[in-house]
Structures are given as structure tokens and as C-alpha cells.
Amino acid sequence: MPKVSVIIPNYNHAPYLEQRIQSVLKQSYRDFELILLDDYSTDESLGILKKYAGQEDSIRFYPNTQNSGSPFKQWNKGVEMAQGEFIWIAESDDTCLPAFLEKMVAVLEQNPAVGIAYCQSDLIDEKGQLINSYLKNLEFIYGTEHWRNDFIQNGEWVCREWMLFHNPIPNASGCLMRKEAYLQSGGADPSMRLNGDWFLYTKILTRWNLAFVAETLNHFRVHQYTQRARTRATYKVYDEIITINRYIQEHVSHSEVNARKALSKVAGWWAGSLPYQKWNKQSWKANRRLYGIFSSYKPRLIFGIVYIFVFVSVRKVLKMLGLIKAAKWLRSRLFPGKYFD
């Protein structure tokens, strides 16, 4: 049996697929199987995947005959087929360094109470050019230098102090999970569109610890076709975050205070999304319901909503006048450290 099962779940990522597969096959650690999945792609993905299928006994290919409608269904499908002790969901538009598996496997083997081990990631664009290290994002979000060094952290503490507020694991490609922990959690929730990874990690970390390797071994590609980019401006995202928040309250002791603080912050995110949502009868109804929930955690929320719509209108005018860069410069001087660069 292989030690690691590498799962590449693909949907319409033909431009990046060859590089993704090659980055797996070039790993210095060799005790792995490769499971290729395709969710009924409409681009050139199938031809690329078929080229690799069967090249070695350790490479298997399972294409869908219709789209599943959820990336997390594909995750669960791959894990069900996996024979390895450890699971690497290597997303099809990302890439990595050859030492990724070698470093991550060592952490899990040496620390049996760790359910998830992950590394530092660089964000790259569609052309593979560096945007920034995710370290910059983490330090802005949490206001700490925690991620400058390797660590092992108690899972319940992570849920209470980090997971309630944000998902510190940028994407699945940067982490290695125990199959036992994945299955014990009940797997990824296929009903979630954006935050199924966040919820999965949370469920695992209520029982297992988290390890981090400060070395950059993963390259997380950010582009307009990522699931995150397609689903950001929808009310459904906020129902998912509320579900995660309530799960932590139910399963992690002494989390109630931070849970309320977190929902106050999420209320602000929700208000900020309103000008960008697609409005119809269903979204009106859902957002009225969300307002009822969030207003109990954030006083004077209605004033925040008015501010957001005014801000967006002013921003559009500044963009038309070509003054966006100047406005951002002024904002950074007036409110240093408050806004992410």
C-alpha cells in the first residue's frame, strides 16, 4: 500500500493541468499513488489526463460522465478510493516544490496526534508570477508573527482562536491530512460552495492537532476562474460561515465569547458584499434573514450598510476619474495598517 494518496480533482483547468501533474511526479518522496479525477470538463482537460492515465500502475483516472456540482463531492470521491495513510488534495491549478511531500510526510510520521500538516504558500497569478507570500495575508488577518516559524498547535485552541475568525490554511494543495482524521470528521460537506475546506479542517481540528512548516513549498494560483472568485458575492457564503461558527461553539469549550466577536466581524463582511451580489427574490429573502441574524451581533448594522453603498458609489466615480491609486495612497496614510495592500 502507498503511504500517500495524491488526489488531483480537476474541472476546466487545462492550461495549468500539465504543470500540476508534473509537480506531483517530480516529488522527491516517491511512496505515493496518484488519483486523477475530472468533473466533466468542457475544455481540453480530458486529453491531458488520459495521457497520464495508465503510464504507471500507481496512476489511476476516474472521469465523471456528468458534472457533480461540487468540488467537495470530488474530494470525498477521491478519499474513498485512496489507499494511502495520508491524503494530499493537490488542486489542479496549483503547483509545488519537489520537497513538499518529503517535508509534510515527516511531520505527520513524527507527530501521531497531528491530523493536518501544512506549509507556507506563495500566491501566484494566472501566468505563474508571484503575487505575494501568504505570510503577508496571515500577519494582516491575525496581527501576529506566529507563521514565521514551524509549530504544532492544539486543535481546539486553533478552532477557538483562529478558525472562528478566518481559515488560516490558504488552500488544500498546501496541506497533508491523515485519512483517518478525514474520515472521522465525516468528510467534506458537498453542500458548501466556498467554505467546505474551512469546515472540513475545523471538524478535523476538534479532535486532532495542527502542524505548520514555515518553508514555502506550495504555490496557490489565484485567478478569475477559481471557485473562490466565482462564489464570493453570494449570500450562501455567510450561511456557511455561520454553520462553522455554530459547530465550533458546540464542539469546543469556552468558545462562546470569540464566536460572538467573530460573527460581528462576519456581519461587516456580509454588509460589504451586498453591492456586489446578484439580486433576485431569493437573495432578497435570504439577505433579510441574514440581517436579522447579524444585527444581533453588530449594533447599528444598518448604518454600516448605508456606508458601504455610499463607499462603492464614490469608488466608481474615482475609478472613472482615474483617481483610485491616489485614493488608496491617501487611505493608507489616514488609516495605517487598517487596510490590506
Can you describe what's shown?
By secondary structure, the protein is an alpha/beta fold. It has two domains: 4-229, Spore Coat Polysaccharide Biosynthesis Protein SpsA, Chain A, CATH 3.90.550; 232-334, no CATH class. It has 14 helices and ten strands. It has helices at residues 14-25, 45-52, 71-81, 100-110, 134-142, 155-163, 179-184, 196-205, 227-231, 236-251, 256-273, 281-294, 301-320, 324-334; strands at 4-10, 32-38, 59-63, 86-89, 95-96, 114-124, 130-133, 151-153, 175-178, 209-221. Strands 1, 2, 3, 4, 5, 6, 7, 8, 9 and 10 form a ten-stranded mixed β-sheet that branches.
Summarize the structure.
The protein has 341 residues and is α/β, with parallel strands linked by helices.
What secondary-structure arrangement, pairings included, does this model have?
Layout: E1 4-10, H1 14-25, E2 32-38, H2 45-52, E3 59-63, H3 71-81, E4 86-89, E5 95-96, H4 100-110, E6 114-124, E7 130-133, H5 134-142, E8 151-153, H6 155-163, E9 175-178, H7 179-184, H8 196-205, E10 209-221, H9 227-231, H10 236-251, H11 256-273, H12 281-294, H13 301-320, H14 324-334
Parallel strand pairs: 1-2, 1-4, 2-3, 6-10
Antiparallel strand pairs: 4-9, 5-10, 6-7, 6-9, 8-10
Helix pairs in contact: 1-2, 6-8, 8-10, 10-11, 11-13
The coarse overall form would be globular
Helix coverage percent? 40-55%
Tally of helical runs: 14
CATH class of the largest domain: Alpha Beta
Q: How is the main sheet built? A: 10 strands, mixed
Going by CATH, the homologous superfamily of the largest domain would be Spore Coat Polysaccharide Biosynthesis Protein SpsA, Chain A
What CATH architecture label of the largest domain applies? Alpha-Beta Complex
Distance between the termini: 46 Å
What class, by secondary structure content? alpha/beta
Q: How much strand?
A: 15-25%
Oligomer type: single chain
Please tell me the total number of domains: 2
Q: What value does the Rg take, in angstroms?
A: 21 Å
How many β-strand stretches? 10
- Find the CATH topology of the largest domain: Spore Coat Polysaccharide Biosynthesis Protein SpsA, Chain A
